[in-house]
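Case study B.
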Amino acid sequence: MKKKIVIIGSGPAGLICALCCCQNGIEPSDILIIERDSEIGGTLNQCIHSGFGKSYLDEVITGTELASILSDGIRQLGIECVTNSTVLSVDKSKRIRLVSPTYGYCTIKAEAIVLAMGCREKTKGALQIGGTRPAGVFSAGAVQRIVNIKGYMPGKKTVVLGSGDLAMIVARRLTIEGGRVICVCEPKEYVEGSDEKYKECLQDFGIPLYCSHTVTKIFGKERIEAVEIAHVDKRGKAIKGTAKKIKCDSFVYQCGLVPENEIIKETGIRLDTRTRGAYVNQYFETNVKGVFTCGNAVRIHDLVDYIVEEALIVASSICKYFNKEMEKPKNVIRIKNGDRVLYSVPQHLDVYDESLEGSVIYFRVNGRYDNLLITLKCDGKEIYTREKGKMSYLETGKILITQDLAKELEKAKEIVICASEKKNGNDIDNYGKNNE
Amino acid sequence: MSITSYDVVIIGAGISGAMVAYQLAKYDVRVAVVEAGIDVASSSTRANSAIVHAGYDAKEGTLKAKLNVRGCEMMEEIAKQLGVHYSRCGSLVIGFTEQDLKHLKLLMARGEVNGVPNLEIIDGKRLHEMEPRVSPDAKYALWAPSAGIVCPYDLAYALCENAATNGTDFYFEFKASKIDYDGEYYTVMDGKKRVRGKYIVNAAGLFVDEIAGMVGEKLPFDIIPRRGEYMLLDKAERKTASHTIFVTPSEKGKGILISPTVDGNIIVGPNANIVESKMDTSVTEEGLEEIAEGAKIIVPSINLDATITTFAGVRATPTNGDFYIQESNKFKNFIHVAGIESPGLASSPAIGEYVLDILKNCGLELRENEEYIPTRTKDGNCKLFYEMDEKERVEAIKQDQRYAKVVCRCEMVTEGDIVNAIRRPIPAHTIDMVKRRTRAGMGRCQGNYCRARIAELIADEYNIQLTEVKKFASNSNLLLRKTK
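Model:
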């Protein structure tokens, strides 16, 4: 089987990319979207809370609503989506190995591929909690799916570990469904997620938050009966003598998300060890020509808005690719991460006939800072400074390449993004790495 | 109440009981296996290092030494026959000092007396060629190419499935609590449940002493429950080690090892701590730290952040230090298979053979079963989708559409595999039973994605509510109630 464009994943990244490809003049029949779940929409389907759609539709709606708007669009255009279908591998020559009830076990030869597989949750193994392994221990994402899509309660008395947005949203959900969240433990000294979510999800529902606390042990032979929580020091180590046993019938943890890129292992696509996504240029093209990527498969995003931006970039890049505007770059500019910068995407800029103007560099810093100054050094020379003010590792920073900057950069070899503190900084080093 | 009568009743469906059942299935005898847990391999067999030791550890002349070397030799053939993943990857005992070298030479000499083939002491250069990530301070190693790795519970499933296919009856959640003897038949009871057999094989692992006690016998040693904790690393770390690597043993035992598993993960552990309860398979923070430290001695660059799960198993350590496999001194036709600690897995094929000989000597008549089926089921060994080649996959999907739907994306397990596991000769009816039979939920996401989906398949197949689906034991329901 042959296909012009294959999009792997039908979350917001994949669907928006498909819709915009058509807006850019690509025939809907030239696109195939592959989804492993029974519905399209990806994680949006379990996000019944509000906060989606702002940059794409200019209104704030729920994840499920956005999923249905997007899937209606796909249906109206007649873009083919195969559901219940899993990509086993993608190789260098853009051959996709697929198992699917529709096509059986088959290979699809694509001219362009969009990797939009999203992300997965890290496991409890990474936490190394002691004790038994009973039923009733869930990741936050699994609970969100079970409660919101399946309509089942995983427990009535729950302890939550982690205070990222997802964990807090799940704590609120369990409370609304009639359960009781005894507490949310956060090993860090502060809430991991946004202040807004902390207020909406925990404070407004009277759910206690214990910062500098972690879960150290699980009790219960068959179903979970209790957990042990303890104070932790700044390095996240439990402090002796502070342990306390809390009775519960379920334990929900969130220990971070990782881009899902297992299927591209054989493609020779270079992965960034910091983002755990592919190395890309400003067109979100990987080092394999014609293979693009967007969404949480590139890096874990804080806002859907950035995913939308990336999907739009990929949709226009695909057109350029088919118009042969991106054959051989005249220059390649490496983007390096300087002080306090955790990662940046894209990892390099490719200079073609088109100017660099309008390209965006996204980055994150490695801690929480009150007064940050962002600078861009080009082959040793400072070409950009901007006062960023307050910034935490949870937010995405953006540098827009202006006409002037583009001119400076065209012949450059390397640029370095640096963040420096002006004063009153609260440098907590690489602690924020856990949040990737 | 009618009681089913058997020629042989095996108590315990761990690796020893499973091997005996497998050996007996080749003959025309009526056999039952009673197991306290809900599944085959419910205790020590489920959680151990999964190593087929070469046989240089056990003292010369012991039963352990004899059965280990023989078992290691037999393992490959059995695994092949039943489609069990096995790899003869070889083992290395690494040494750092002159003292260690002396000890390695002793081990080698002992191994040679025991009959271990092709043992060799190699220098640091060769060691680091074989295992580039081993500590640069390691200067010597004992190389045992005959050692291997196998998946212990898959082996036990395969053996029991083969036995069940050939007519052996299995009774799960049958916790033998009383045994009567009428001079011909032993009646094994669990409350009102009872089975009787002319011969009893006591392969109850951690509980052999208690089973012996039910007929009033005290074994000449005690069984000490010793817990070993483990860490399992993501497949991405597979380059950490390609052989089983030990450090030179000390008084404290064989110490922490690093080994590949047949499924491509890296296993690290175990420690050895005496625990009060025979069922205490909890992991401890201190224990995991102990393992992490031990692992770093072998491979300093090991990436323990890639741990996908931690677990522990309890071994039945006999105070006399050797296997004890013989007919009871007091009761005829009552055979103890006791004290089977490490290298119990490696020895198990030979244990099965050895027990068969004892039964024969006791007078059990063994006529060959002419309709013997040598595989797990009538239809062969039931390959999983991920084990199939391209042609087999296409064929499987043609036969059953459900093979085209992947449920566990990490381990590439399809709906077809899961439904098949639910319908196999020893059917899976819990999430963990499905997991161990298919690997669904054993990958890097540890079931976060597929656990609820597997529960739905179990509920469908057994026609029960989703809230009734269990993780493993009777009270381990996954979900509490329906809200929508």
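Residues 231 and 310 of chain B are 4 Å apart (CA to CA). The remaining cases will be described in the next quarterly update.
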